[in-house]
Every structure is written in C-alpha cells, then in structure tokens.
C-alpha cells in the first residue's frame, strides 16, 4: 500500500458570511485545506481500507464523534488504474453494519457495495475490482439501507481517481501541487461546537442541510495554489444540499470533466451547479495572483404545494434563490507553477461511447408520500415499513426485484418527480442525458453521467454491460440521502 502524506498549506482568516438555513455556530475558518493521503490500489494483497470510529475537533476544543476509513473522518483518496485489477480489504471496526459502494464504477453487482452487501462489525469484505472505466473522478461511501445518510454524514466517504495510462490528459495532474480534490459537505454544529445530525420530519422530507461548509473535512479552509492553471476535482458529498459554484470575483473557469470522465473539449463558464453525488473537474487560471473565494448561492430543492414554500420557502431548484453567496473556501496564490501546461488544449481525449438506439423505454416517477401528514391530500403512496418516499408508487423493498434488464441493450429511461427536484443515480453504468426539464441537452456539455438532476421531465440513454444477479442487484435511487433511506430506491438485475 502506497500513501502520500498530508500536505500542509498556508492558512488565512476570512470573514464569516451569514449563511445557510439554520443557526450557525461561530467557527474558525481559514485553516489549511487537508489534502487526502493517496492509496494506490492495484492487484494483490496489502490494500486495506478500515472503517473505524473516531473523534475530530472541527472547532477548537469541541471533539465530535465521527466515522472514517483509515482515519477519524472521511478516507484516503483511492487511486485505481484502468486495465488493472484492484484488490482491497474493507474492514469494519465500527459498531454497525457498513458497505463500501464504489460510486460510478462499472463493476458487477456482487462487487458494487450496495445494501445487499452490508457486513457486520469485525468482518472483512475483500472485493477484487476489475477497473474497466475511463479516467474519471468517482467516490466511495457506505450504502446500508436506512443508515446511509447517518453514516455518510459522520464520515464514511472518500474520493476515487481512475487513471488511464493509454489516454494521458494534457491537463494539470500533479496531485497536491496543481491538481486538488475538493470534497464539499455541509454540516451542522451544536452550541458546544460539536457536529450534530438529528433530522426532524422536515429534514427527512426536504433533505438535511447544515450551517457550516466543510471541504476535505475542514471548515471553509484556505488553499495556496501556484500562479498558473490549477485543476479542481469537485465532489458534492452533501446529504442534500445543491450548489451553484462560482468565484467571488466572477472569474471564468473551464469544466473539463463530468461524473464519468473527460468532456470532448473544455467548456468556459462562470458558474457550475452540482447536485448531491455529482462530480465535475474544472481548471482555473490563477496567473493574475489574485486571492479569491469559491462561493455558492443557496439553491432550493423545491417544496410541497407546487414549490410554494411549505418545506423550503422557495420554488423548484431551477428558480434558485436571491440569498447572498456564502463561502465554500478561499485561495491564496503563490509562485508561478514549475510544472504543468501553460494553456488549455482545444480538445480532450474523452471516451464517449455510441450507445445506439434504445430497444425499450421505461418510466419512473419519484414520489414523496405526504399522506401521513396531510390525510392523503397529495398522493396515495403507502410507505413500506414506515417509509415516506418511493418510486412509481412503491417504497424500497430489499427482498423484491423491480426490474430485469437485458445485458448489453440500450434503454431510454424517462424520469419525473411529483413534488420536488431529485438527483437520480443509477448503479453499475454511466449514461448520457438526452433531455432535462423537457429541454434538449448538448451531450458535449454533459458527457457521461451517473447522476442527473430531475427538475421536470428528464430522459437518459443508458446501456448495461455489467451483470447483476438477484442476490446482489444494482440500485436506482434519489441521492438525497434522507430520501434514499426513506424508500426512494429500486433495484434491478442485469443478465
């Protein structure tokens, strides 16, 4: 097992913005951004990922109970190489069953790490992962049904980078120097400064949102970058919060990759919206040496009664919010970069497959059950085992297979939602987005995806090339983790 030590970077203290949706505790922003250690995972023995209990002082003098892989909170950055087998022992040293779901990886169902593969404290799961995926930024997290939101919130998550030796990209790629992982999360803290997760009914209906922004486990940290092109790998690892990322000076940047890997060409933009579980790689030019802040605006996920505000005080996500931007992290600029490209290429070595024409069409409606609160005013979904969410009128049942998908065929999936917007995730594959909100989408801007934000009628083109048996099926679900735990999930076989 190879590791890279944490890098210590320059800190700066910045003013605390007024944010988000709950009462915030006075925090201590500006600490150096922690850079996750790297675990190079290849064939053979020696790669161990231990899930464990821990404590972390997010705020000085206040120790929070946490979970992590190999450390007290979050986990190392796992680095896989396309075309090589990745052997890894996942050890459970927590008090509860866990999984390790390789989110976005194209692996068979018995290796996917979904709810059917939960294993108890003291046990070890040893998957042998065939790395058959283009170069991309993915992530891993626990996926125990009914416990996913709590376990991910407490820290059972980390980033994955897949490298392709046959398609080296002409982008900044010196990890910890001009290529940085940014795991973005919102967390809540009590009066003592301890991280807390105690969702009420509205949190379960809307999704839990915290008051403080964490990046790589630090509250609104500072990163010193070289004066040149810098690659930022953004992961929205929040339970429910959606982000409209931008820089406080309005500077332009370029998106170079989406969930499934590189885009055909860099796309210039001034803002980037990411729903929970989405990833994007961006390249930012810091040659002007100006200190800047990465910020976001509050984004509504909608509410009941047509988005009138019963839940969140605002309409559907597409309407956004007029709140002032809140700070994610800050950047200081050091000396000119010694390595890395000076300019962005006009095109990128993307790997966008031709999925062909769909053989069949399937329809999915994401349901929020409100009958228990409103006497069935809105819909008639009866939640199984107290679950308040569902898909196509049914809450998740681990013992039932919802779909049987033929191997190697392309399908058109049409997805809609009856009340809110939802990030929709499909296991075991990547897909191309055809329409979002009833509007055509340019595939060159989206690339290959495994999460799509459903804000009105949405269509995806998907092909399944990895087998999943009924004992270990693949999942499709909302990636607002409270919704997933509450039953907005289905499962399917491929064969």
TrEMBL record:
Residues 54-165, 383-494 form the Plastocyanin-like domain. It comes from the Bacteria. The keyword Metal-binding applies. Residues 1-26 form the signal peptide. One of its GO terms (molecular function) is oxidoreductase activity. The keyword Ribonucleoprotein does not apply. Pfam families: Cu-oxidase_2, Cu-oxidase_3. Transmembrane segments: none annotated. Keywords: Metal-binding, Oxidoreductase, Signal. This is Copper oxidase. The lineage of its organism: Bacteria, Pseudomonadati, Pseudomonadota, Alphaproteobacteria, Rhodobacterales.
